[in-house]
Design brief:
about 0% helix; binds zinc ion; 5 strands; single chain; 5-stranded mixed beta sheet
């Protein structure tokens, strides 16, 4: 099992915004779910399916 990294999420309105450690792009997650593990919304280009990260507060 691969450990997913922890990233600092920035609050933007109703979203938590992160720079993805897998693909380097910006992903948004609904802030309603709070912090914790999320599956990355990568558009492909080599990021393994199902990989994610743990959101943490700045
Ligand atoms: Zn990504």
């Amino acid at each position: 099992m691969v450990e997913d990294p922890t990233v600092i999420a920035r609050r933007e309105g109703d979203d938590l915004v992160v720079i993805c450690p897998h693909c380097g792009e910006k992903h948004r997650h609904g802030a309603g779910g709070g912090y914790g593990h999320r599956i990355a919304h990568c558009s492909g280009r080599g990021t393994p399916a199902g990989r994610g990260y743990f959101l943490t507060e700045a």
